[in-house]
Design goal:
2 strands, 6 helices
Length: 113
């Protein structure tokens, strides 16, 4: 039997879910985050790992994730200049959620057919 939350707690829980969904709502948000979970990557490495993402979509997604504090852009002063993207501690805090999404998708992979 499911335990029902008191209305004031339910409202807070729903508000928290909405706030989280607003941060991770883009089509490419979760794939970009998953790509960066293991190590820092250059733009071209991210494009190579996420099939179907356009340059415009990736650039927009990286800016949004940086604005949300989930990733950071690292500029190196090498010649030629080098830029990498890295997930922040805030972004890393989503790792277990991303794993759960993956596990759910494996079980229900036929849902989008």
């Amino acid at each position: 039997m499911r335990k029902e939350l008191p209305p004031e707690k339910r409202i807070k829980h729903i508000a928290a879910v909405i706030a989280t969904a607003e941060v991770v709502n883009g089509k490419w948000t979760l794939p970009v985050l998953m790509t960066l979970m293991d190590r820092n990557k250059r733009y071209s490495e991210i494009v190579a790992e996420i099939k179907g993402i356009s340059d415009m979509s990736l650039a927009r997604e990286l800016k949004e994730l940086e604005r949300a504090g989930l990733i950071v852009r690292i500029l190196y002063t090498a010649m030629p200049p080098l830029t990498e993207y890295s997930v922040t501690d805030r972004g890393l805090s989503l790792r277990s959620i991303l794993r759960e999404f993956h596990q759910w998708a494996e079980v229900y992979k036929d849902i989008s057919k």
